[in-house]
Amino acid sequence: MATGTVRSLVRQLAAVDRSLLLPGAAVRAAVGVAVVLVVGVAAGSPASAVAAAAGAFSVGIASIQGAYRSRVQATVATSIAMALSTLVGAFVVRWEPLAVGTVAVWAFAAGMATAFGPPGTVVGLQAAVALLIAGDFAMTAREAVTRSLLVLAGGLLQTALVVAVWPLRSYAAERRAVAAVYRALADYAGQAVGAPGDVPPPRADELSAAAAVLGDPNPFGRDGPRAGFRALVDIAGRVRLELSALTHARARALGRRRDDDVRSIDAALGQLAVDLGGVADELLPWFPHEAQPAGAEASATDGLRPSVVASIEALRGQLRSAARVASGLASRNGPDAPRAGSSQLFEISEPHLLPPLAEPMLALRASWDLRSETMRHALRLAAVVLVASLLFHTFPLPHGYWVALTALVVLRPDFASTMSRGVARVIGTALGALVATVVAAELRPAAGALVVLVSLCAFVGYLIFRANQAIFSTFLTGYVVFLLALVGLPGRQAALDRLVDTAIGGTLALVAYAAWPTWEAGRVRERLAELVTTQVAYASDVLEAYASATARTGAGLARTQADTRRARASAEASVQRFAVEPRARRAAEGDLLDIALAEGVIAAAQRDAQALLSLHARLPGQDAEELPQVAPFVAELRRAGAVLDDALRGRPRRHAYPALRAAQLRLAAELGDATVHRRLVALETDIVVDALDTMAHLAGVIR
């Protein structure tokens, strides 16, 4: 176990996901840091350069969040928060009890800010870091105000650089996001060819990310290209449905040994993969890519079931539309693009100059509970930083704020992040502190050389920010050491001091988490219950659309599908975190959940989703036949969902689990096989019932 853990840790420390490198953002943000350093040093005020660069660097981290307006919102919020924190830190440092208490309050606020997602996490963390660093320097009131204004100026310079590149980006964010959607769909179609059985439904992560980018558009963009990108996302949503239906039909043909059908579907999937990849390549004309085979003939569909033929033909039509729109967007200022259709499968929010407050306040209110992950993280963080501050105020630790700083960046809300990313950050911080301090103490670089070193560390830190935490922490620490060296080169003892401080801070963070952990075992049941509840709601909406023409509205289905997608992502992430927690902990909480149950529910939910996506893809039109026989089955489905919700949450069951299989058999008999829609509903509800009954068996509801 120990050897495997060490190997896994080493792999994590060394692994760099090149797709997550940020060269463009790194250049822009590093230029912002370099500019304030050069101006400050050239003006003969290294201290001013350090203050402004502190703001510029941290706001550069914030500038990696979001796309356009949301990015500016994050950078402005970080600039203001850091400036205020610098001012407060400079004033409270004179009174140690007040300083210690203030640091704890800031740490608590930083922990609670994680409720607002990645942007809130960045703002809260950088504000707490600014307070800690400011508290290490004695300043007069005038110097404190000046320094806070310089921090604000550095941050606002980064904000100005963010805005300055908008007219030059030629919809780069939109192109990358939408191209990633089509590349993921192409990969899915290609991987399904020759698969030995059913494949899980295609993930919607890239679609969700693209919808978020399009909901935060470039203010300098034109309406035509914006409409084109929205059309491509809508087309991709329908392609995802049809691909899921097609791979599901392939698995069914494989199980029934209809080899000719499997070969025909594989041929269609292979060509669709090529066409989807072609759309992705068309959207990124500046990237070299392999030429797609030209003039490929459509695969034969003779002998295939009508629903399968309908999926293939629908996919071909959607891909032709996508290719036309992508071709129009291929140039910098492409022609106005038509919308893909009236029904949006992915809701794209309208942009706001100021961020809407309703949703963040709801998230904060939900987190204001001792049982919530966010509240426990905030209290843990405040306690650790409080102890760290007491240590460096009580004992003679040179630059002891480094203890609290290390604890602040290591501690994370969940076990997996704290132990994997936390250890990576400790190792990276220790390595960066050692190397940078030795370089600064032994080589005694001049101010110009320090400016170059700081700028280089900033560039690499930005570049690697999302790709590798250990390397990021190494260069982040190097940046801090070289930056502070501008106002006083460290002595030879400083390297050892910082190593000791890093070890103390990292140990404090890990011990604190071990003393009061937030185990995923306590939350995974709730996440699984939410998945089942939202998936049953989605199934009910889809089936009601077959039962009644009045229920065939795209907006309602889009909402329930989006809820299901989010719940599935949350549940899968929760199960993954639960799986890596110590076995002893899982055994201790075995009355709450067994890992086999959790993984089994996820697998059953994937089968259920595959069937529902197939039904959604073949949704009847407004003038199509209504199937009222479906309504009683939907009622039974809802009752089953309520029972499963109680069982997975560990609550007493309010109702008996219904006889779903009997209800489905009655439905199939009543529907018959006179039309494609009747056959499809009978076929797919069989899989839905199998999935829900499997969950019920795993949860101990039925035997």
H/E element string? HHHHHHHHHHHHHHHHHHHHHHHHHH
What is the helix fraction of residues, given as a range? over 70%
Query: How many domain units?
Result: 3
Count of distinct strands:
0
Mean pLDDT figure: 83
- Over all CA atoms, what is the radius of gyration? 28 Å
Strand content: under 5%
Main sheet specs: none
Describe this structure in words.
The chain folds into 3 domains: 22-167 and 370-515, no CATH class; 171-328; 520-698, Up-down Bundle (Methane Monooxygenase Hydroxylase, Chain G, domain 1). It has 26 helices and no strands. Mean pLDDT is 83; it is low at 291-297 and 335-343. Helix 3 (46-62) runs antiparallel to helix 6 (118-134) and helix 15 crosses helix 19. With 703 residues, the protein is an all-alpha fold. Helix content is 72%, strand content 0%.
Condensed summary:
The chain has helices at residues 2-14, 23-42, 46-62, 69-92, 96-112, 118-134, 141-164, 172-192, 205-214, 223-255, 259-283, 306-328, 358-367, 373-394, 401-410, 415-443, 447-464, 469-485, 494-515, 524-547, 554-580, 583-588, 595-617, 630-649, 660-671, 676-698. The protein is mainly α and 703 residues long.
